[in-house]
Amino acid sequence: QVVFALNQTLLQQESLRAGSFQIPYTTEDLIKHYSCGDLSSIIFNHDTSQVPNFINATLPAHERITAQEIDSYFRQELIYKRNERMGRRVKDLLDEYPDKSFFFAFGAGHFMGNNTVIDVLRREGYEVEHTPAGQAI
Q1: I want to staple 106 with a disulfide (CB 3.0 to 4.6 A). Which of 1, 27, 73, 110 is the partner?
Q2: Which residues contact 54 (CB under 8 A, 6 or more apart)?
Q3: Where are the domains of the chain?
Q4: Residue 124: its pLDDT value, please?
Q5: 51 neighbors 74 (Cβ within 8 angstroms)
Q6: What does the pLDDT look like over 102-122, one tens digit per residue?
């Protein structure tokens, strides 16, 4: 699976360089949507947006299965479990020090797709609000 993942990543990079493959959004798109708090927009509506997309229709059936296994592993280990741990850490601090104020900063990857840090905190009963860029806290 590691060799497959590396090969697919290299193929994607070669396709990008050759101009035969384009990323569906630009860095400017990511910044704009992040700043606006619009993280449920179409560019973020994929659980696997944080990891390379190895699944494509041109793969033979046995390679497509491998790609799906890798995708599932990445989603579970690198996204869901990580966000769960981070959300629990935030919750534990808030519970332990209820009279203190905190500022938590996370990268955009912690707010994309399903089972985000925000989802974890909301499941725990916390109300989470977006503060737009430039707005005083």
Answers
A1: 110
A2: 4, 5, 8, 9, 67, 70, 71
A3: 1-124
A4: 94
A5: yes
A6: 988 887 777 777 788 999 999
HEC string for the chain: CHHHHHHHHHHHHHHHHHCCCCCCCCHHHHHHHHHHCCCCCHHHCCCCCCCCCCCCCCCCHHHHHHHHHHHHHHHHHHHHHHHHHHHHHHHHHHHHCCCCCCCCCCCHHHHCCCCCHHHHHHHCCCCCCCCCCCCCC
Q: Which amino acid is at 80?
A: Y
Instruction: Tell me how far CA of residue 105 lies from CA of 6, 76, 113, in angstroms.
Output: 31, 22, 18
Rounded distance, CA 124 to CA 2, Å?
A: 36
